[in-house]
């Protein structure tokens, strides 16, 4: 079992930045690729970014590429999502997830955190 606990959500103004963290624990967690997803009110969950367990290779969704940066610190068992140039369209529940194969496809995830809410005011 792998456990994921997100933090860092909150309220930010349009054009601002926010950083999210997700602490990962559990047997074998260091071998999982880690991803960030988001779900806006009334919309389906959307894959944002994923980072490989060892190579550091990243995948980004079209809606966040160029504005969001995913990174991980394996020594701290933590994955981060730095979000810049935020807009109200980025308002959502942000969740981190663990997957064996790097992907931002929702059905490809093996474990999920409960999420942290981000609200961007106009």
The mean pLDDT is 96
Approximate shape:
globular
Main sheet makeup = 7 strands, mixed
Structural class call reads mainly beta
The helix tally amounts to 0
Low-confidence parts: none
Strand content: over 45%
The strand count comes to: 11
The SSE string, one letter per element, is: EEEEEEEEEEE
> What is the rounded distance between the termini?
40 Å
Q: What is the C-alpha radius of gyration, as a whole number of Å?
A: 13 Å
Q: Which range best describes the helical content: under 10%, 10-25%, 25-40%, 40-55%, 55-70% or over 70%? A: under 10%
Question: How is this structure best described in words?
Answer:
With 122 residues, the protein is mainly beta. Helix content is 0%, strand content 52%. The protein has strands at residues 2-7, 10-13, 18-26, 33-39, 46-51, 58-60, 68-73, 78-83, 92-99, 111-112, 116-121. Strands 2, 4, 5, 6, 9, 10 and 11 form a seven-stranded mixed beta sheet that branches. Strand 5 and strand 6 (58-60) form a beta hairpin. The protein is globular. It starts with a strand and ends with a strand. The mean pLDDT is 96.
Write the layout of secondary structure elements.
Layout: E1 2-7, E2 10-13, E3 18-26, E4 33-39, E5 46-51, E6 58-60, E7 68-73, E8 78-83, E9 92-99, E10 111-112, E11 116-121
Task: Please describe the structure with a list of short key phrases separated by commas or semicolons.
mainly beta, seven-stranded mixed beta sheet, four-stranded antiparallel beta sheet, globular, 11 strands, 122 residues, single chain
């Amino acid at each position: 079992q792998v456990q994921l606990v997100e933090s860092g959500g909150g309220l930010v103004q349009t054009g601002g930045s926010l950083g999210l963290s997700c602490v990962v624990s559990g047997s074998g967690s260091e071998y999982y690729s880690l991803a960030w997803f988001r779900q806006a009110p009334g919309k389906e969950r959307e894959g944002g970014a994923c980072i490989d367990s060892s190579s550091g290779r990243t995948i980004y969704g079209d809606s966040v590429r160029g504005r969001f940066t995913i990174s991980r610190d394996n020594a701290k068992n933590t994955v981060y999502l730095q979000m810049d140039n935020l807009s109200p369209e980025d308002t959502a529940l942000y969740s981190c997830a663990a997957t064996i194969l790097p992907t931002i496809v929702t059905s490809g995830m093996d474990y999920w955190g409960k999420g942290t809410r981000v609200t961007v005011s106009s």
